[in-house]
Amino acid sequence: MTTLMSIVVTMIAIMFRCSNGLSMNYYMMNCPMAEFIIQNSVRSALTSDPTLAAGLIRMHFHDCFIQGCDASILLDSTDDNKAEKDSPANLSLRGYEIIDDAKQQLENQCPGVVSCADIIAMAAREAVFFARGPYYDIPKGRKDGTRSKIEDTRNLPPPTLNTSELIKMFGQHGFNAQEMVALSGGHTLGVARCSSFKNRLKNFDSKNDVDPSIDSQFVKMLARTCNAGDNAEQPFDMTRNMFDNGYYNALQRQAGVLSSDQTLMADPRTRPIVNGYAMNQAMFFMDFQRAMVKMGLLDVKETGQVRQNCHKNN
Ligand code: HEM
Q: Model's pTM, two decimal places?
């Protein structure tokens, strides 16, 4: 009976195996509680602080776009290496403690099995769902990378990019314009700090030069936020902890916070996609989850280490 069971389990495992060595049920045999443990860590942390859902989703994006989804974002700087997390582009990332908590529990249950890269991917997925977004299954089995260099973060998109530049940058990772617009919908959660959008206020005083793509009332709101300093926070949409299509509705009202947000409405190539998601939340959810699964497969490592401590190489 046990032999039969293990044959069936192995067959199922083979069936669900992806071409890149990842599989939906990767931990079924050696850490069956993995998803449950991560789910619990994320849910209990977000119950206390729902704003951290945004942090986890952004962390997954910033991990995958640099060197692939290999948890390089979690490595600490050392005496002879400045790591990605210390780059200005990553200083406002949040939610590291949730990953640490899940990792500690996983190491107690099944030491050396669940990679930090998989924990980030699963935590982001749980965060989307916690915020009432879609739930999607993701392949697992990523290994952790050993390289984390501050200079690599120049490949993260700055908030000043226009649509052509965004299409180009996301295209380099294999995403088309529609997928780029769907992924930008991650901005349905969370906030940007004044330093990320004050470029849009430069000409605020000289009425004629104000960025014409911003609503005139909204630009005043951004300016008021910035009165409190560079770190003052501006929610991307009216429901910062709710995963919905409010971000696209904001773009339609010319109330996108970053230049890189509002440009999606200004450009005729992406405007119809923004309008589509603003009108049809289900379509946004479907495209977002597909694009997230795809993002989670960027340059994944089949071989390599599973870090014991996500902050440092073994
Ligand atoms: C399209 C290009 C993108 C640009 C230029 C961009 C840029 C930014 C910037 C500048 C911030 C604010 C940082 C700060 O002021 O502290 C931010 C926040 C955020 N980004 Fe993006 N981002 C992009 C795409 C994405 C994608 C693809 C995702 C996820 C799928 C994402 C998820 C988030 C989230 C959730 C936040 C809020 C974080 C928080 O509240 O802690 N972004 N992004």
A: 0.94
pLDDT of residue 8: 54
Ligand 1 near 184 CB (within 6 A): yes
105 and 168 part of one domain:
no
Is the CB of 191 within 6 Å of ligand 1?
Answer: yes
Residue nearest to atom 13 of ligand 1 (CA): 192
Active-site residue list: 62
In terms of DSSP H, where are the helices of the chain? 2-15, 34-48, 52-64, 96-109, 116-130, 163-171, 177-184, 194-197, 216-226, 246-252, 259-266, 271-279, 281-295
- Residue 59 CA to residue 97 CA, distance in Å, equals 12
Which residue's CA is the nearest one to ligand 1's atom 5? Answer: 159
Below-70 pLDDT ranges, the chain = 1-19, 203-211
Q: Give the chain's domain count.
A: 2
As given in the structure block, the two tokens for residue 168 are 């180009």
Q: For residue 114, is it within any domain?
A: yes
Write down the pLDDT at residue 210.
56
